[in-house]
Amino acid sequence: MMRIVISEFMDDVAVATLVERFSVLYDKTLVDRRPELVAHLADATALIVRNRTQVDEDLLSAAPKLRVVGRLGVGLDNIDTTACLARGIVVIPATGANAQAVAEYVIGVAMVLLRTAYLSTPAVADGSWPRAALGDGREIAGKTLGLVGFGGIGRLTAKLGQSLGMRAIAFDPQLPASSPVWAAHATEAATLPELLARADVVSLHVPLTSDTRNLLDAQRIALMRPDAILVNTARGGVVDEVAVADALREGRLGGAALDVFDREPLPAGSLLAGCPRLILTPHIAGVTRESNERVSALIADRVAAALRDD
């Protein structure tokens, strides 16, 4: 019987569908015990991971029977896709399954940071009454949403923002200005400098590559409006975290929400600690109860299909 190893958390219902047809080892903590993971891969036909399992050359070399890698998410920077291709291993991402969760996260944190009042709970609970200080919060309606990357998640984020009265502009070098996509999504194509200069909310939706690493560095952050909001749900290496911290502390950025980091978990004593107008979350923008069910079901179905066709 073909064997599937699942090294990170997956919806129990989806796991059960695989157990019915295959020999399955499901241990969501296996990612933290790499020697044990490597040993289990000796006879594995498929591996299912999230973003923490490093599917690199060493791991692949220990898995001679591996035919499929299922990714419970969309980013592939933790998977050596070139090495997989050379070995004939199919890599299957859960494209589109967590888009709604990410788009809602972007709009939700943008509203919190624009309004500022939602961060006042400790002060109000202690008896303070910072009504005057928090009375200049901003509405999201009428603001410009700048999307860096305009794939499926970027387009859905534009739609949600537009439903609240936002204008959408986007930069995507993969889409020519003549593409019908722009009109279909009522979104204006812009260069990256134009977008950074005009947007009230800048949201990143690009993979981490050599071209996008430190895409938002100190120089480009300086192009942003001093009251603009930055949201990164893409990959940590796309943003210079030190530059973000400096801009927040110096009042050159209106706020930021970072869900991903160059190093995860974020190390203790990070320069981001204590920054004003900053929301930090542990790489969960795309993870909700509903999205986990969708992502897990999709990967279970596609991995099973790939093994049947092998």
Description of the structure:
The chain has 310 residues and is an alpha/beta fold. It folds into two domains: 3-97 and 289-309, Rossmann fold (3-Layer(aba) Sandwich), CATH 3.40.50.720; 99-280, Rossmann fold (3-Layer(aba) Sandwich), CATH 3.40.50.720. Helices cover 34% and strands 15% of the residues. The chain is built from twelve helices and twelve strands. It has helices at residues 12-19, 34-40, 57-61, 81-86, 99-115, 121-125, 152-163, 180-184, 192-198, 218-221, 241-249, 289-309; strands at residues 3-6, 23-26, 46-49, 68-71, 90-93, 144-148, 167-171, 188-189, 201-204, 229-232, 255-258, 278-280. A seven-stranded parallel β-sheet has the order 8-7-6-9-10-11-12, sandwiched between helices. Strands 2-1-3-4-5 form a five-stranded parallel β-sheet. α5 crosses α7 (152-163). The chain starts with a strand and ends with a helix. The mean pLDDT is 96.
CATH class of the largest domain: Alpha Beta
First-residue to last-residue Cα separation: 13 Å
Unreliable residue stretches:
none
Largest sheet: 7 strands, parallel
Lateral arrangement of strands in the main beta sheet = 8-7-6-9-10-11-12
What fraction of residues sit in β-strands? 15-25%
